[in-house]
Design a protein that fits this description.
HTH_CRP; 3 strands; about 100 residues; 6 helices; mainly alpha; globular
Length: about 100
């Protein structure tokens, strides 16, 4: 599943430059959740540091965006994973290009 995510991320990278770090985070979480192995739907095994590295943002910026999603009850962050509890709300923040891929 990781290889299929990488392929999607490469496709998305062309569309990510103009999106805010928050939208890029939402896109990342959406793509990971959509391509997660069966039985793990809505659970993403990534740390804040890994997310920051993937998105090329600071850890503080990633934490701020994750905090916003947590406060809006879209995700529940855990120690080294994230649980998506409101997929529709997450999708509402994603770019159109991501949702159409």
């Amino acid at each position: 599943w990781y290889a299929s995510y990488i392929n999607l991320l490469l496709y998305e990278s062309a569309h990510q430059d103009y999106n805010s770090s928050f939208v890029r985070l939402c896109n990342l979480l959406y793509l990971f959740s959509r391509n997660s192995p069966s039985g793990e739907h809505g659970r993403i095994n990534l740390t804040q540091e890994s997310i920051a590295e993937i998105l090329t943002v600071t850890r503080v910026s990633a934490a701020r965006s994750l905090g916003r999603l947590r406060d809006e009850k879209i995700i529940i962050p855990h120690r080294s994973r994230i649980q998506i509890i409101d997929q529709k709300a997450l999708e509402s923040y994603c770019s159109d290009e991501t949702l159409q891929s």
